[in-house]
Amino acid sequence: MTDILAWVSLISRYVLIKEFKRLSEQLGMKLPKGAGNIVDEAGAQIVKKYGPETLKKIAKLNFKNTEKIKELAKN
To answer: What is the pTM of this model?
Structure first.
């Protein structure tokens, strides 16, 4: 069972990296991974450029920083 979990983890990580690369190319900017100010700023840039509806397509909206991103985009 441990071998299967290791493979699943490896494949999931590969898909995540490929998807981040695809989205970065699509949006014309490098998308940072993780959390913090750099992610919030990138999110705000996306909202400014493409509108808040884009977040629904590319992000999990149940995190607290979603509202922070929307506020940053207003400035």
So the answer is: 0.79
